[in-house]
Automatic annotation (TrEMBL):
InterPro entries: Znf_C2H2_sf, Znf_C2H2_type. Signal peptide: none annotated. Gene3D superfamilies: Classic Zinc Finger. GO terms for cellular component: chromosome. Coiled coil: none annotated. This is C2H2-type domain-containing protein. GO terms for molecular function: sequence-specific DNA binding; zinc ion binding.
């Protein structure tokens, strides 16, 4: 018997995405990819382009930026 529910309560906040995940950490890991412009180049929440991976603080700002008002 398959008892796997497949429930994924953590939806990606990006408006054009629609993916959802079973753990918030997985969602955040995926969400970062929306700000990866190319290999090793990232767009920060303030619009800056950086060669450093977004920090957890940046991730928080990404989420604020995409949260419904
Ligand atoms: Zn997404």
């Amino acid at each position: 018997m398959n008892i796997h529910t497949g429930r994924k309560p953590f939806a990606c906040p990006s408006p054009n995405c629609g993916k959802s995940f079973n753990a918030k950490s997985n969602m955040l890991r995926h969400f970062k990819l929306h700000f990866k412009l190319s290999s090793g180049v990232f767009l920060l929440p303030n619009g800056e382009v950086t060669h450093t991976k977004p920090s957890s603080k940046d991730l928080h700002l990404y989420l604020e930026r995409y949260s419904p008002i």
